[in-house]
Amino acid sequence: MSLSPLFNAYPALQKLIPLVDIPGQQIPTPVTHSLDTPQLWLKHDDLTNAVYGGNKSRKLAFIFGKMQAEGKTRLLTFGGTGTNHGVACAVHSKALGIDCEILLFDQPESESVRKNLQVMQRYGATLRYCGSLLNTVLRFYTLQIHDRLLRRKQTEYLFAGGSSLQGVIAFIDAAFELREQIERGECPVPETIICPVGSSATLAGLTLGVALAGLPSRVIGVRVAPAHLGPFPACTVATVKQLMQKTQQYLLRLQGGIPPFNIPQPVMLDQYYGAGYGVASAAGNQAEQWFRKQRWADGLTVQSECTYTAKALATLRDELATANGPVLYWHTLNSVQGIYSEAEAV
Ligand SMILES: *Cc1c(COP(=O)(O)O)cnc(C)c1O
Q: Which chain regions cross the lipid bilayer (predicted)?
Protein backbone atom coordinates (compact mmCIF):
# COMPACT_ATOMS: atom_id res chain seq x y z
CA MET A 1 0.00 0.00 0.00
CA SER A 2 1.20 3.47 -0.82
CA LEU A 3 1.92 5.90 2.02
CA SER A 4 0.78 8.78 -0.09
CA PRO A 5 -2.57 9.73 -1.64
CA LEU A 6 -0.62 11.76 -4.23
CA PHE A 7 1.06 8.52 -5.32
CA ASN A 8 -2.35 6.84 -5.47
CA ALA A 9 -3.41 9.52 -7.95
CA TYR A 10 -0.09 9.50 -9.89
CA PRO A 11 1.57 6.09 -9.35
CA ALA A 12 4.71 7.02 -11.33
CA LEU A 13 5.57 9.61 -8.65
CA GLN A 14 6.21 6.89 -6.09
CA LYS A 15 9.63 6.16 -7.62
CA LEU A 16 10.42 9.84 -8.17
CA ILE A 17 9.57 11.42 -4.80
CA PRO A 18 11.30 9.80 -1.81
CA LEU A 19 9.33 9.56 1.42
CA VAL A 20 10.39 8.30 4.85
CA ASP A 21 8.02 6.54 7.24
CA ILE A 22 8.92 8.48 10.41
CA PRO A 23 8.49 6.37 13.60
CA GLY A 24 5.05 7.15 15.07
CA GLN A 25 3.67 8.69 11.87
CA GLN A 26 -0.13 8.33 11.63
CA ILE A 27 -1.28 9.71 8.30
CA PRO A 28 -4.05 10.07 7.04
CA THR A 29 -5.19 12.28 9.90
CA PRO A 30 -8.88 12.07 10.79
CA VAL A 31 -11.53 14.72 10.12
CA THR A 32 -14.24 15.59 12.61
CA HIS A 33 -16.94 18.19 13.09
CA SER A 34 -18.20 20.39 15.92
CA LEU A 35 -21.30 19.41 17.85
CA ASP A 36 -21.83 23.04 18.81
CA THR A 37 -21.15 25.04 15.67
CA PRO A 38 -22.95 24.02 12.46
CA GLN A 39 -20.67 23.94 9.38
CA LEU A 40 -17.46 23.72 11.47
CA TRP A 41 -15.14 20.87 10.46
CA LEU A 42 -11.63 20.12 11.66
CA LYS A 43 -8.70 18.34 9.99
CA HIS A 44 -6.67 16.67 12.71
CA ASP A 45 -3.13 17.51 11.64
CA ASP A 46 -2.49 17.88 15.36
CA LEU A 47 -2.21 14.07 15.18
CA THR A 48 0.18 13.53 12.24
CA ASN A 49 2.57 11.66 14.53
CA ALA A 50 2.03 9.78 17.80
CA VAL A 51 5.18 11.28 19.39
CA TYR A 52 4.89 14.83 18.06
CA GLY A 53 2.19 15.85 15.58
CA GLY A 54 1.34 19.10 13.82
CA ASN A 55 1.99 20.27 10.28
CA LYS A 56 5.79 20.06 10.55
CA SER A 57 5.77 16.27 10.97
CA ARG A 58 3.82 15.96 7.70
CA LYS A 59 6.48 18.00 5.88
CA LEU A 60 9.41 16.16 7.46
CA ALA A 61 8.42 12.80 5.96
CA PHE A 62 9.22 14.24 2.51
CA ILE A 63 12.19 16.32 3.74
CA PHE A 64 13.85 13.29 5.38
CA GLY A 65 13.05 11.36 2.19
CA LYS A 66 15.08 13.83 0.14
CA MET A 67 17.93 13.74 2.70
CA GLN A 68 18.04 9.96 2.68
CA ALA A 69 18.09 9.86 -1.13
CA GLU A 70 21.01 12.34 -1.12
CA GLY A 71 22.91 10.57 1.68
CA LYS A 72 22.68 13.55 4.05
CA THR A 73 23.12 12.89 7.78
CA ARG A 74 22.80 16.40 9.27
CA LEU A 75 19.90 18.83 9.37
CA LEU A 76 20.41 22.55 9.97
CA THR A 77 17.38 24.80 10.31
CA PHE A 78 16.16 27.87 12.20
CA GLY A 79 13.15 29.23 14.04
CA GLY A 80 12.00 31.29 17.04
CA THR A 81 13.00 30.21 20.54
CA GLY A 82 9.64 28.43 20.82
CA THR A 83 9.69 26.95 17.31
CA ASN A 84 7.34 24.00 16.78
CA HIS A 85 9.31 23.24 13.64
CA GLY A 86 12.49 22.96 15.73
CA VAL A 87 10.76 20.54 18.11
CA ALA A 88 9.57 18.36 15.21
CA CYS A 89 13.08 18.38 13.70
CA ALA A 90 14.77 17.55 17.03
CA VAL A 91 12.35 14.75 17.98
CA HIS A 92 12.14 13.02 14.59
CA SER A 93 15.86 13.52 13.76
CA LYS A 94 16.73 11.70 16.97
CA ALA A 95 14.43 8.80 16.04
CA LEU A 96 16.11 8.52 12.62
CA GLY A 97 19.71 9.00 13.80
CA ILE A 98 20.16 12.39 12.10
CA ASP A 99 22.24 15.21 13.69
CA CYS A 100 20.10 18.30 14.18
CA GLU A 101 21.23 21.90 14.65
CA ILE A 102 18.79 24.78 15.16
CA LEU A 103 19.55 28.51 14.95
CA LEU A 104 17.17 30.46 17.19
CA PHE A 105 15.82 34.01 17.05
CA ASP A 106 14.14 35.88 19.91
CA GLN A 107 10.41 35.42 20.30
CA PRO A 108 8.18 36.77 23.13
CA GLU A 109 8.42 34.39 26.11
CA SER A 110 5.47 32.18 27.01
CA GLU A 111 4.80 28.84 28.63
CA SER A 112 4.81 27.03 25.27
CA VAL A 113 8.06 28.76 24.20
CA ARG A 114 9.77 27.62 27.41
CA LYS A 115 8.53 24.05 27.06
CA ASN A 116 9.58 23.79 23.41
CA LEU A 117 13.11 25.02 24.18
CA GLN A 118 13.42 22.39 26.88
CA VAL A 119 12.30 19.60 24.54
CA MET A 120 14.72 20.63 21.76
CA GLN A 121 17.56 20.49 24.29
CA ARG A 122 16.47 17.19 25.76
CA TYR A 123 16.26 15.55 22.34
CA GLY A 124 19.90 16.46 21.74
CA ALA A 125 19.59 19.22 19.13
CA THR A 126 22.49 21.68 19.00
CA LEU A 127 20.95 25.10 19.69
CA ARG A 128 22.52 28.46 18.76
CA TYR A 129 21.03 31.81 19.74
CA CYS A 130 21.39 34.39 16.99
CA GLY A 131 19.30 37.34 18.29
CA SER A 132 17.00 38.95 15.73
CA LEU A 133 15.20 37.11 12.95
CA LEU A 134 17.18 38.99 10.31
CA ASN A 135 20.52 38.09 11.97
CA THR A 136 19.46 34.47 12.16
CA VAL A 137 18.57 34.31 8.47
CA LEU A 138 21.92 35.92 7.57
CA ARG A 139 23.77 33.36 9.72
CA PHE A 140 21.82 30.53 8.05
CA TYR A 141 22.84 31.65 4.55
CA THR A 142 26.45 32.36 5.59
CA LEU A 143 26.85 28.83 6.96
CA GLN A 144 25.28 27.39 3.82
CA ILE A 145 27.62 29.34 1.50
CA HIS A 146 30.62 28.33 3.64
CA ASP A 147 29.69 24.64 3.29
CA ARG A 148 29.28 25.01 -0.46
CA LEU A 149 32.69 26.63 -0.85
CA LEU A 150 34.25 23.74 1.07
CA ARG A 151 32.15 21.26 -0.97
CA ARG A 152 30.71 19.75 2.17
CA LYS A 153 27.52 17.90 1.31
CA GLN A 154 26.32 16.09 4.42
CA THR A 155 24.07 18.89 5.72
CA GLU A 156 20.53 19.66 4.60
CA TYR A 157 19.89 23.40 4.98
CA LEU A 158 16.21 23.64 5.71
CA PHE A 159 14.43 27.00 5.77
CA ALA A 160 12.37 27.92 8.86
CA GLY A 161 9.10 26.06 9.16
CA GLY A 162 10.27 23.37 6.72
CA SER A 163 9.40 25.65 3.82
CA SER A 164 10.92 23.84 0.90
CA LEU A 165 9.75 22.01 -2.21
CA GLN A 166 9.27 18.90 -0.07
CA GLY A 167 7.27 20.84 2.52
CA VAL A 168 4.92 22.11 -0.18
CA ILE A 169 4.61 18.65 -1.76
CA ALA A 170 3.62 17.26 1.64
CA PHE A 171 0.61 19.59 1.62
CA ILE A 172 -0.27 18.87 -1.99
CA ASP A 173 -0.36 15.28 -0.78
CA ALA A 174 -2.52 16.38 2.15
CA ALA A 175 -5.11 17.88 -0.22
CA PHE A 176 -5.31 14.52 -2.04
CA GLU A 177 -5.69 12.86 1.36
CA LEU A 178 -8.69 15.13 2.03
CA ARG A 179 -10.16 14.26 -1.37
CA GLU A 180 -9.93 10.55 -0.51
CA GLN A 181 -11.74 11.27 2.78
CA ILE A 182 -14.46 13.16 0.93
CA GLU A 183 -14.78 10.27 -1.54
CA ARG A 184 -15.14 7.84 1.38
CA GLY A 185 -17.91 10.03 2.82
CA GLU A 186 -15.96 10.98 5.94
CA CYS A 187 -16.47 14.67 5.37
CA PRO A 188 -18.36 17.00 3.01
CA VAL A 189 -16.64 19.11 0.34
CA PRO A 190 -15.58 22.23 2.29
CA GLU A 191 -16.64 25.57 0.92
CA THR A 192 -13.62 27.08 2.67
CA ILE A 193 -10.41 25.70 4.19
CA ILE A 194 -8.56 27.89 6.70
CA CYS A 195 -4.96 27.59 7.94
CA PRO A 196 -2.38 29.83 9.64
CA VAL A 197 0.57 31.01 7.52
CA GLY A 198 4.12 31.22 8.91
CA SER A 199 6.72 30.05 6.42
CA SER A 200 3.94 29.45 3.82
CA ALA A 201 4.47 25.83 2.78
CA THR A 202 1.13 24.74 4.24
CA LEU A 203 -0.85 27.40 2.37
CA ALA A 204 1.17 26.98 -0.84
CA GLY A 205 0.72 23.19 -0.80
CA LEU A 206 -2.97 23.20 0.11
CA THR A 207 -3.77 25.84 -2.54
CA LEU A 208 -1.92 23.88 -5.23
CA GLY A 209 -3.20 20.53 -4.03
CA VAL A 210 -6.86 21.55 -3.84
CA ALA A 211 -6.65 22.86 -7.43
CA LEU A 212 -4.80 19.79 -8.69
CA ALA A 213 -7.23 17.44 -6.92
CA GLY A 214 -10.14 19.27 -8.53
CA LEU A 215 -11.78 20.32 -5.27
CA PRO A 216 -13.89 23.50 -5.49
CA SER A 217 -12.87 24.67 -1.99
CA ARG A 218 -11.44 28.13 -1.37
CA VAL A 219 -8.22 27.99 0.69
CA ILE A 220 -7.65 30.97 3.00
CA GLY A 221 -4.32 31.54 4.75
CA VAL A 222 -4.04 33.78 7.78
CA ARG A 223 -0.68 35.53 8.00
CA VAL A 224 0.89 35.32 11.49
CA ALA A 225 4.53 36.13 10.57
CA PRO A 226 6.09 39.44 9.43
CA ALA A 227 5.45 40.25 5.77
CA HIS A 228 9.01 41.61 5.36
CA LEU A 229 12.39 40.87 6.97
CA GLY A 230 14.30 44.13 6.83
CA PRO A 231 14.12 45.03 3.15
CA PHE A 232 13.23 41.48 1.99
CA PRO A 233 9.65 40.29 1.39
CA ALA A 234 9.18 37.14 3.51
CA CYS A 235 5.50 36.32 3.82
CA THR A 236 3.45 37.98 1.09
CA VAL A 237 1.11 36.75 -1.63
CA ALA A 238 4.06 37.14 -4.01
CA THR A 239 6.40 34.93 -1.91
CA VAL A 240 3.68 32.29 -1.53
CA LYS A 241 3.15 32.35 -5.27
CA GLN A 242 6.89 32.00 -5.92
CA LEU A 243 7.01 28.92 -3.72
CA MET A 244 4.02 27.51 -5.64
CA GLN A 245 5.70 28.23 -8.98
CA LYS A 246 8.95 26.56 -7.93
CA THR A 247 7.02 23.49 -6.82
CA GLN A 248 4.91 23.36 -9.97
CA GLN A 249 8.02 23.53 -12.17
CA TYR A 250 9.73 20.83 -10.12
CA LEU A 251 6.71 18.52 -10.29
CA LEU A 252 6.28 18.96 -14.04
CA ARG A 253 10.01 18.33 -14.64
CA LEU A 254 9.72 15.01 -12.79
CA GLN A 255 7.37 13.76 -15.53
CA GLY A 256 5.44 11.57 -13.12
CA GLY A 257 2.12 11.89 -14.93
CA ILE A 258 0.94 15.23 -13.51
CA PRO A 259 -0.62 17.15 -16.41
CA PRO A 260 0.29 20.82 -16.96
CA PHE A 261 -1.82 22.93 -14.60
CA ASN A 262 -2.31 26.60 -13.82
CA ILE A 263 -1.23 28.09 -10.54
CA PRO A 264 -4.21 29.46 -8.62
CA GLN A 265 -3.95 32.84 -6.94
CA PRO A 266 -3.22 32.22 -3.23
CA VAL A 267 -5.47 33.97 -0.70
CA MET A 268 -3.79 35.31 2.42
CA LEU A 269 -5.35 37.67 4.97
CA ASP A 270 -3.15 40.25 6.72
CA GLN A 271 -5.60 41.85 9.13
CA TYR A 272 -5.40 39.21 11.89
CA TYR A 273 -1.62 39.53 12.40
CA GLY A 274 -1.83 42.11 15.20
CA ALA A 275 1.30 43.48 16.87
CA GLY A 276 3.83 40.84 15.79
CA TYR A 277 4.91 37.22 15.46
CA GLY A 278 4.08 35.46 18.72
CA VAL A 279 2.33 38.51 20.16
CA ALA A 280 -1.18 37.56 21.31
CA SER A 281 -4.12 39.53 19.87
CA ALA A 282 -7.42 40.31 21.60
CA ALA A 283 -9.44 38.78 18.74
CA GLY A 284 -7.25 35.70 18.92
CA ASN A 285 -7.69 35.32 22.68
CA GLN A 286 -11.47 35.49 22.33
CA ALA A 287 -11.48 33.00 19.48
CA GLU A 288 -9.34 30.60 21.54
CA GLN A 289 -11.89 30.65 24.36
CA TRP A 290 -14.68 29.89 21.91
CA PHE A 291 -12.62 27.09 20.31
CA ARG A 292 -11.83 25.43 23.63
CA LYS A 293 -15.54 25.17 24.40
CA GLN A 294 -16.32 23.27 21.18
CA ARG A 295 -17.26 19.63 21.61
CA TRP A 296 -16.07 17.49 18.71
CA ALA A 297 -17.92 14.51 17.26
CA ASP A 298 -14.89 12.25 17.87
CA GLY A 299 -14.72 13.28 21.53
CA LEU A 300 -11.08 14.42 21.26
CA THR A 301 -9.71 17.59 22.85
CA VAL A 302 -7.62 19.97 20.79
CA GLN A 303 -5.03 22.53 21.90
CA SER A 304 -4.49 26.12 20.88
CA GLU A 305 -1.78 28.76 21.36
CA CYS A 306 -1.36 32.44 20.57
CA THR A 307 1.32 32.49 17.82
CA TYR A 308 -0.48 30.59 15.04
CA THR A 309 -3.72 28.99 16.06
CA ALA A 310 -5.50 31.85 17.85
CA LYS A 311 -5.13 34.27 14.93
CA ALA A 312 -6.36 31.71 12.41
CA LEU A 313 -9.27 30.90 14.75
CA ALA A 314 -10.29 34.57 14.79
CA THR A 315 -10.56 34.34 11.00
CA LEU A 316 -12.41 31.04 11.27
CA ARG A 317 -15.08 32.62 13.49
CA ASP A 318 -15.57 35.52 11.10
CA GLU A 319 -15.83 33.15 8.12
CA LEU A 320 -18.36 30.94 9.90
CA ALA A 321 -20.56 33.97 10.50
CA THR A 322 -21.15 34.36 6.76
CA ALA A 323 -20.58 30.79 5.49
CA ASN A 324 -23.09 29.03 3.25
CA GLY A 325 -21.37 25.66 3.48
CA PRO A 326 -18.85 23.63 5.49
CA VAL A 327 -15.75 25.46 6.75
CA LEU A 328 -12.77 23.21 7.47
CA TYR A 329 -10.14 24.35 9.97
CA TRP A 330 -6.79 22.75 9.15
CA HIS A 331 -5.48 22.21 12.68
CA THR A 332 -1.71 22.62 12.29
CA LEU A 333 -0.78 22.56 16.00
CA ASN A 334 0.58 19.44 17.69
CA SER A 335 -1.70 18.09 20.43
CA VAL A 336 0.38 15.12 21.64
CA GLN A 337 1.70 16.02 25.08
CA GLY A 338 3.94 13.05 26.03
CA ILE A 339 7.25 14.68 25.19
CA TYR A 340 6.35 17.59 27.47
CA SER A 341 5.54 15.52 30.54
CA GLU A 342 8.82 13.61 30.13
CA ALA A 343 10.54 17.00 30.05
CA GLU A 344 8.93 17.91 33.36
CA ALA A 345 10.23 14.70 34.93
CA VAL A 346 13.90 15.39 34.08
C1 LIG B 1 4.67 26.28 11.64
C2 LIG B 1 3.26 26.36 12.00
C3 LIG B 1 2.32 26.92 11.12
C4 LIG B 1 2.70 27.56 9.82
O5 LIG B 1 2.90 26.67 8.77
P6 LIG B 1 3.78 27.12 7.53
O7 LIG B 1 3.72 25.98 6.61
O8 LIG B 1 5.15 27.38 8.07
O9 LIG B 1 3.17 28.36 6.98
C10 LIG B 1 1.01 26.92 11.49
N11 LIG B 1 0.62 26.43 12.68
C12 LIG B 1 1.48 25.90 13.56
C13 LIG B 1 0.98 25.41 14.87
C14 LIG B 1 2.84 25.85 13.25
O15 LIG B 1 3.71 25.32 14.14
A: none
Torsion of CA 68, 72, 74, 80, to 10 degrees: -70
Cα dihedral 156, 159, 161, 167 in deg (nearest 10): -70
Q: Do 298 and 320 lie in a common domain?
A: yes
Q: What residues flank ligand 1, with Cβ below 6 Å?
A: 54-56, 84-85, 161, 163, 196-203, 308-309, 332-333
Q: pTM (2 decimals)?
A: 0.97
Which of 165, 199, 277 has most ligand 1 atoms within 8 Å of its beta carbon, as the pocket-test mutant?
Answer: 199
Is 222 a member of any domain? yes
Domain limit, last residue, from 141, 162, 183 = 162
- Measured in angstroms, how far is the CA atom of residue 39 from the centroid of ligand 1? 24
Tell whether 17 and 118 lie within a shared domain: no
**DSSP designation for 160:** G
Please tell me the distance between residue 305's alpha carbon and the centre of ligand 1 in angstroms: 12
Please give the residue range of the domain that contains residue 123: 58-162
Å from CA of 54 to ligand 1 middle:
8
Q: Which amino acid is at 249?
A: Q
Residues 113 and 63 in one domain: yes
pLDDT digits (tens, 9 = 90+) for 185-224: 999 999 999 999 999 999 999 999 999 999 999 999 999 9
150 Cα–ligand 1 center, Å: 33
d(CA 28, CA 296): 18
Distance CA 258, CA 255 (A): 7
pLDDT digit string, tens, across residues 160-194: 999 999 999 999 999 999 999 999 999 999 999 99
Closest atom of ligand 1 relative to the 305 alpha carbon: 13
Runs of H (alpha helix) within the chain: 5-9, 55-69, 84-96, 111-122, 133-149, 165-183, 201-212, 237-254, 282-293, 309-322, 338-345
Residue with CA at minimum distance from ligand 1 atom 3? 198
Q: What is the pLDDT of residues 23-66, one digit of tens each?
A: 999 999 999 999 999 999 999 999 999 999 999 999 999 999 99
